[in-house]
Amino acid sequence: MTMEFSEHIKTANVDDVVLKLPLRPALKGTLCVTAHHLVFSERKEEGSYQLLLLLRSVDAIEKRMTGLSGSSGTIVIKCKDLRILQFDIPGMEECLNVASSIEALSSLESVTELYPFFHRPRELSLSEPWGLSSPQQQYAQTERLWDRWRLSKVNRNFSVCMSYPRTVIVPCAIDDITLAKAASFRQGGRFPVLCYYHRSNGMVIMRSSQPMTGANRKRCREDELLLQAAIDESEMGYIIDTRSAQQAQQARMAGGGFESKAFYHHWRRLHRHLERGKVLQESLIKLVEACGDPSQNMDRWLSKLENSKWLSHVHSALSTAGLVAECVERDGHSVLVHGFEGTDTTLLVTSLAQLILDPASRTFRGFLQLLEREWVQAGHPFRQRCAHSAHSHARLRQECPAFLLLLDATWQLGRQFPLALEFSEVLLLRLAQDAYASDYGTFLCSSEQERCALQVKENTHCLFQFLLRREEREKYVNPLYEATDLAIWPSVHPQSLQLWTGLFLRWTEYAQTMDEAREEIWTIVKERKETDRPKGCAHTTLSRHDSFTNVENLMDELTVL
Amino acid sequence: SSWHTSWRNPSDHSPRVCLINVHAAQPLCGCCVFSDKDLIYMCPFHGALKGKVFITNYRLYFRSTDMESTVTLDVPLGVIGRIEKMGGASSRGENSYGLDITCKDMRNLRFALKQEGHSRRDIFGELFKYAFPLSHGMPLFAFLSQEKFEENGWSVYNSIDEYRRQNLPSEQWRISFINESYELCDTYPVHLVVPYKATDEDLRRVATFRSRGRIPVLSWIHRENQAVITRCSQPLVGMSGKRNKDDERYLDIIREANGTPRLTIYDARPNVNAVANKATGGGYEGDDAYQNADLVFLDIHNIHVMRESLKKLKDIVYPNVEEAHWLSSLESTHWLEHIKLVLSGAIQIADKVSSGSSVVVHCSDGWDRTAQLTSLAMLMLDSYYRTLRGFQVLLEKEWIGFGHKFTSRIGHGDKNHADQDRSPIFLQFVDCVWQMTKQFPTAFEFNERCLVTILDHLYSCRFGTFLYNCESVRDSNKVRSKTVSLWSLINSDKAAYVNPFYTSDCSRVLYPVASMRHLELWVNYYIRWNPRIRHQQSPVEQRYKELLALRDQYLKKLEELQLSDSTPSSARLTNSSTPNAPLPNQHLTHLQTPF
């Protein structure tokens, strides 16, 4: 333990602490504060309960004196994963010491002091690969990109765009000098880059930040050329702006703006307003408050749920992503998505659109790759956005649950298409937890540049690699998964969207029974797969059959059914 | 004229037998065509659709004749609650003249006809006659149906067998034949389980103090602790606060049977309603009179409140679903709140019984809220009732046997749509069951489709199961010999109604979470007519099963093909990956986000 940590720990061990957890009888034992964890061990000979709580996952802490003349204290810990724990600690001084340790150690500023830099499980080695893919790999694997798109290393030193990775995919016709100029016209240097290529018709999804047209309608030839080069002369592209038209207009006063029709002839702009930042954060806080409201009787729960507006944010995210997917798949247009900075709602929309369109992103690995590409490498500022979740009374700075919203919308997709996703709700819950506090380095920092500077990849383990290990993977797989090549169009009616009880009511009895049920279903499906195996062999030989008309007729029949 | 061959309706799976004969006009199964007519169906989802309507004595069938549309309607006449003429011969506006049909299953139908020549007169007359046969001195369709099934559903339930399953009679409880000819209570079944220590004479005296003679009788006994659920109607206390020593002693005998320290009486009503009932001669068990009993009011509202609540729910889901303020609108119907109260009442009962205390459950007459509470508590306590057959037994026993007034509540074959006796009490119960199946996805052998089928035939009048108000009337109308049981349909095709994820070893008591946070609207039932709402999450298990079935079918077909043709050469299929039948839900349904 380094000096800085021990400075924060005045009382390392307290005995006779009572721990109250949701759904468990109170436990008595020893509480121990370490640099990164709270450890509680029940004082019992056999089968004693141990709690290991990552201090980083503490969102807020409340302390109050109890007992005669304040002889003991109670600490209530509200975790970022929405769990609430209570410790009753004998001795006022001990209580205050423990509380101040938790406060200090749960909000360490320096990234390299965080637990991922110390997490060294025996079964993992730092020499293992970090991350699942890179733009290079993505490019190399998509042969059909090659004649029109190229890899650019214009950002190799992160000098063109601080928040982009070193390599990006751009139109062949645009050289690096042009790119750099276009970048100077986009907020934060986030010039339009490719994020998805639709194999069936060659259309693409790109993303960027807003153009800096400003009050006097500046233009940038290079930016115009870049977008022009992304589509054919004869084609029409769509810009989906995640702001309202009014917001986009107003952004000009602050130096931002939008692509004017006069200069971007082949692009049509559509505005779909998605809330972001503070509004989203407050929505989450309201929702969690409503969920935790202990007055369960006739408490107008549905009104509270509606007032939190969380589900309407889910609605906007899914319907805007649906719009993008519709442009690409049904109408055959390429799309550029951006809002303001292009690091939040933009990523939400592009990644959901890919889930709708791309069967590869619905596999276990594919989904993690999607998150890595569209969120981690694309520079979603996890560090600021996920500093606190819904409980913190600390003054909020740049917190915003955009990533949580993505996970929620993904859950809705999984609920509407129970067979379409290879991963289960358990994975989404795990990601929701790790985005806010983790043993792994994946969600540390806000950009690749920062990750490089702090040598995150050299000194932490990668969550995604870990989850893909065989023994882990099993926990997160959807037993009902059946791959489909079709797009999965979500229904976005309010009647079709549900509260994600697995996350927001996670620490209730209900979640427990659902966990049990999930396990039972797993067992049943596994057993069934065992017995089905011979049939599996059958169809590989049968699939070489040439009586197509018959088979096709049958397929039609099945489709109708 | 091959309209019946392309008939396909996912919501009603079986009466094809009937339909095929429609065109041949041979009333093979008691079903015959009376009319076919060209008209316009004013579909709330697809707009005005030209088509043909066929009316038989069982159903109304519509098929659009537009080339582009394949909309069909298949509505058992029993589902129709109200038929009205819309517009007059002189009303203006397109499609303003026709018929407006209100259904009992959360939809309305509107047909427009040509304005000249009294074109709707015949069809209105026929519909009115066959939708409300009892109002026209005609029999219900169930008595005309000639359907045959492999299984005989009437053999599912035999009260003595069911009591034997519960190890009854026992030392403390006997089966009484006092009601053999429905003399004690004409709305009770023939066989009653009563305390061994109570003589038939005692029972008669207790009956005088209970509304409509519905005395406390045993519904269920806990195998280990011998605590019982007994059900009855309210005591006839009246304004003067009458007491009845026999009734008091009788309840005490029930308490003593397993040594329960204090008997708990669950009165399903809100306290004020129970007090108000005194004015009409009813009331509740007072503290003074029943000293070893605790009275708990469960605050469940009466049939009128439930009817209005469902009406409000229908307003926000049909024809258009409320969009802007969906959740608060849903809240203002109070439907889920009522569900919550019923479920939490049942939870309290189940909890009390499993802790070893006997309980008495009643409301006013003991055939609505009481049936909801006892049957839900039994579903929580006894895993047998969670099987496909056990659930049928539960309904036969607690609902049909103990005289839930199906005829009055549903209004079978009766034109009087405004009858104040109608109320969706049984639907509300099935909704509660559905909520439980959602919370315990592996604990129930039957699936969602089974519940929906039961509700469809609650109204259809195709089966005798839900006809009439009580056993005595059912007997005198010879329902068992003259009609087919709904369980015949279901048990002849069990695979379709079974939950593939059912694990039979789950025999513990199931306590659902009855908090508003964990209840959801049963979208697949209440909003099922709206094609724009995806019936998502609709039985995950169902789809999984369908998929397996499709795949099996597919593989079988391929095997056959391979046998018939032994030249494996082409590579076309090899490329098209494995035979994944596109799922019904994964078609390209249009997202409602027009540019």
Description:
The complex is a heterodimer of chains A (561) and B (595). Chain A is α+β, with helices and mostly antiparallel strands. Helices cover 41% and strands 14% of the residues of chain A. In chain A, the strands form three sheets. In chain A, strands 4-3-2-1-7-6-5 form a seven-stranded antiparallel sheet, with helices on one face. The longest helix of chain A has 34 residues. The C terminus of chain A is likely disordered. Chain B is an alpha+beta fold and 595 residues long. In chain B, the strands form three sheets. In chain B, strands 4-3-2-1-7-6-5 form a seven-stranded antiparallel sheet, with helices on one face. A five-stranded mixed sheet of chain B has the order 10-11-14-12-13. Chain B is globular and about 75 Å long. The N terminus and C terminus of chain B are likely disordered. The chains are: A alpha+beta (561), B alpha+beta (595). At the A-B interface, helix 8, helix 9, helix 20 and helix 21 of A face helix 8, helix 19 and helix 20 of B. Chain B: One of its GO terms (biological process) is negative regulation of autophagosome assembly. Chain B: It is found in: Cell membrane; Cell projection, Filopodium; Cell projection, Ruffle; Cytoplasm, Myofibril, Sarcomere. Chain B: InterPro entries: GRAM, Myotubularin, Myotubularin-like_Pase_dom, PH-like_dom_sf, Prot-tyrosine_phosphatase-like, Tyr_Pase_AS, Tyr_Pase_cat, Tyr_Pase_dom.
Please outline what is shown here.
The complex is a heterodimer of chains A (561) and B (595). Chain A has 561 residues and is of the alpha+beta class. Chain A has helices at residues 3-8, 92-105, 135-141, 176-184, 221-230, 245-251, 277-292, 301-308, 310-330, 345-357, 364-377, 382-385, 402-416, 425-436, 448-453, 456-459, 463-467, 470-476, 501-504, 509-542, 548-560, and strands at 13-20, 27-33, 37-42, 50-54, 58-66, 72-79, 84-90, 149-152, 168-171, 193-197, 204-207, 237-241, 267-271, 335-338.
